[in-house]
Amino acid sequence: MEEVEGGSITTPKGFRACGLYCGLKKSQRNDLGAIYCEVPAAAAAVYTTNLFQAAPIQVTRDSLAAEGKLQAVVVNSGNANACTGSRGVDDAYRMRAAAARALGIPDHYVGVASTGVIGELLPMDKVESGIAKIPGLLGEDGAAAFCEAILTTDLVKKELCVRLTIDGQPVHIAGAAKGSGMIQPNMATMLAFLTTDANIGAEPLQALLREVTDETFNMITVDGDTSTNDMVVVMASGLAGHRPLHPRHPEWSAFKEAFRKVAEHLAKAIARDGEGATKLVEVRVSGAESDAAARAVAKTVIGSSLVKTAIFGADANWGRIIAAVGRAGQRIDTGTVDIRLGDIVMMEMSRPVPFDEERAAEYLKGDPVVIHIDLHMGDGRAIAWGCDLTYEYVRINAAYRT
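The chain above was modelled as a monomer; its predicted structure follows.
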């Protein structure tokens, strides 16, 4: 497996993309994008756990329920089309129908996604006018414009493409994502789109996506809030020319690892680009009774506002870390916990260890910051990602709508 320099969501065979400005944002940045596959692609998706799921999620679920295939995904930013009642649902279906009409494909081959302000109706005249332009803009060079079209408060685009060989054939997996605020494990204010030319059916693709999401996208947090629109969609064109992939295929593990690499890269990029963030924070938990217990501890620590503010202030206050471990809702042997910041030991067997405060403060000023927690109770392991909590986060979110 290798990273493809300059690769994008249009590198896998069969895919094109585009982005354009249709008037949803106050700025002149792209706010409407599409990914298109020249053939109906096997597809899978996972969605936010928020009970108030936005209208586009309902439409994409409906599309995938028909055949487990998609040929296009149309995405807008600047307006979430969430908590907009039956009118919002109708508008999401109108987006699907407009894209299908423009591209000459069945309605159920189109997925829909939206991100932005909650509770505002879409200006459908602008959206439909923009969708009508999509066919003329689609191209293999359209990935950058698409990446811009899905951003909200993000500061950077997030994408990766990798290549591996299966049955002697080159196979590509690529992804693009957005996400910066309202990021909480079990999905977040994030949209992620993965493309691959692998030959894989919808059923094994869905199972793989769920498993990998639990280890990557569901292990990030910025602020503890879970949004209404979060979605990860993957499309597989099947044009790579190898035998169908499934868990019994001899190279399944290689494909799974490459797929996970793309998802983890996007997840970490979202955490690093957290609103107002100055650094990526990684929490590594080992020695838990199970992987599930390790995930719970890692999520609790990475989500602690006190831990996050201490890291921002370069304050090596390990007490905030151990307090978060203790409230994670898991069985903990309170006499066997080790904590390190990087390679700086702060606690062994739940007892404080003298350390160089200046060295620790200097480490916390760097990027990334890695917190190691060993519970000494079993073989369970997990990694979670987040960022520090800064004054800038408050400024951004105090005026999000205005």
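Residues 181-188 have pLDDT under 50 and may be disordered.
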